[in-house]
Amino acid sequence: MKKSFILYVALLFLFGCKWEIPAEEKTLKSCQKPTGILATPDAINPKKFSFSLVGALAEVASVSWKVSTGNTTLVQAANANAQAYGYTVATDGTYVVTADVTTTCQDKTTLSVTYTVNTQLPVASSFSLTDPMVHSRLTAVAVANDGTLMAVENSEIKVWNPTTRTLIRTLKADVNPINTVALSPSEAYLVAADNTGKIYVWDWKSGTLTRTLTGHTNAVYKVRVSTDGKYIASLSADKTIRVWDTSTWQSIRTIAFSDNSSIPNAFAVNSSGNYVAGCFYSGNTYYFVMWNFQTGSEVWRQTISYPYGLEFSPDGQQLYLNYYGTSYKYQLWNTATKQLTKEVEGDYLLSLSLDGRYILSNYSWLDTQTFSRSWSKTLLGFSPNYIAISANNQYAARSSYGYVEVLQTSNGTPLSSTFSKHPTLVTSASFSKDNRILAILDYAGLVKTWDMTTGQMLASQTTQNYYTGGNGVALTPDSKYLIISGCSNLYRILNSTDGSLVKTIASSNCSNETVISPDGSFL
């Protein structure tokens, strides 16, 4: 009986009591959690960022996003259950994005990332989009025996070292535009003349204006120095030619002409024969006239085709003429017999070397005995408008549409890279959406892209030519492409980083501007 009672009590205790396993001995299910937040800026809008969880994402049950700055909460409990979130801020500043994550195991974790929005780009402190040797109004050039270049820009004469492309000095006497310059054979002085009729004589090596010659009452188109440096001749819009003695710097002869119009490039002086000559036109008739400047008498008048250049041989016995009839030609006239002795096919413009051995044209370097060409070169596809030869025949200077270069006459090689940036009027510009890329198009169709943060040029491409022009440029929203418009009846699509042509789109007419829709879908 006693044993049965003990067994009963034991069974009652065993089955009638609730047993609890200690908490520390429980076996729980464990979920993996994300480890951080990745902040990705938008490719177009610098104020827009995308945020995404990184790490283990398979067991994420819900996410609540929060955006704050300082002590201010901007967005609370946004996009529940989304593992990614996008937000566009209103202003620059530092922001904190927080994600409260709950896993399928009901575990919770809070992640955050701090990011800064700064749309004020660190623009390069200083960089030029225009080459320093590119001129806005280049009207004349001269070149010294060592290659030093003298180029006119408006009212200034700039003296350059063309090898290093550095400005040596600027010569300026007044605010009036300079039309013409001439360097004496000895290089002792540089002569220049302006729109008011003043003639300036410079010691160009020191930058000193030594004298100003007055007498003309209107613009001086052209000044020439005789081969021996004894005389200067000036051709003016006041319908006079003046001859100046450089020993006294006095005007020794004024020759009035009644002809309607003169041609500035076709004007020459020679001291051996005491000749001065100029080309003129009246209606459709062109002719040159030669005077003896010691007596002032006209000694020869010859009808010709449209002239572009006129030069005396050093001894004054021959007169070289460059003209255009059905083609460009050079003629050689005997000043004593007034007979044409030679005519050959030629180029545009004429500059005769001091010793009479060579001719510089817009394209070529020619021997005056055979008229054969040693070399022929264009100036970035343009025809130069102003040319000059150094007294020692070693260098030639040429300019066109603002470009200027100095060549070695032995082979036509420039002393330095002729161009690097924009030579002509800039017609259009476009910034990328993030303001990091600038595209510039000029009138010649030359387009260049620049990195605004470094000032480095990214690409350069000639897209048209001078006659079709370049009118409009636009960057696509993703900054990958440039679209160029002009008067070639084509839109050109270029790669913005290397300037390569991607494709062309036909246009029915001349286009003056290019605009792309914000999403890049329409032009």
Automatic annotation (TrEMBL):
Matches recorded under Pfam families: WD40
Keyword Repeat: yes
SMART domains cross-referenced by the UniProt entry: WD40
Each WD repeat, start to end: 171-212, 213-254, 419-460
Highest taxon of the lineage: Bacteria
Matches recorded under InterPro entries: Quino_amine_DH_bsu, WD40/YVTN_repeat-like_dom_sf, WD40_repeat_CS, WD40_repeat_dom_sf, WD40_rpt
Keyword annotations of the record: Repeat, WD repeat
Keyword Ion transport: no
UniProt protein name: PQQ-binding-like beta-propeller repeat protein
Annotated organism of origin: Spirosoma telluris
